[in-house]
Amino acid sequence: MTLGHATECPDRTGIVGKDGDRSHPKACVVLRRCLCDFIDAMRKKQLPISPIAAAVRAEATCQQSDIAIRLRGKLRWDSNAERFINDEQANRLWSGPIRGSWSYAI
Questions:
Q1: What is the pLDDT along the chain (106 residues), one digit of tens a residue?
Q2: Spans of all domains in the chain
């Protein structure tokens, strides 16, 4: 399976470049294994090794940090409402346009 500039390893050890080069930084090993595990789980209609909720929370934290940096200030977050508290400018950045639906054919 082709994933952008890389190809899934048949031995599930990670991702290799188009030229077959396996000399990637060690920090990328975990990402490659998680990606292979995620694709394999989707094919088998099973849960991946890492829960998707954890990935969503981690990504949300990165986005919240980016918004705080752009606005050059501290922000308060309401995790229940999933909105910034008393900051409409931050909330506008948080809830940008949503892309259309997508699917992954197995």
A1: 334 434 444 444 444 444 455 544 544 566 677 778 888 888 999 988 878 788 788 888 989 999 999 999 999 999 899 999 999 999 999 986 667 777 777 6
A2: 2-44, 52-94
CA distance 77 to 12: 39
Do 75 and 87 contact (CB within 8 A), yes or no? yes
- Does the pTM surpass 0.90? The reply is no
Token output for 18: 């188009």
The type of residue at 53 is A
What's the CA gap between 77 and 61, in Å, rounded?
Answer: 10
Q: How far apart are CA 39 and CA 51, in angstroms?
A: 13
Q: Confirm if 67 and 73 have CB atoms less than 8 A apart.
A: no
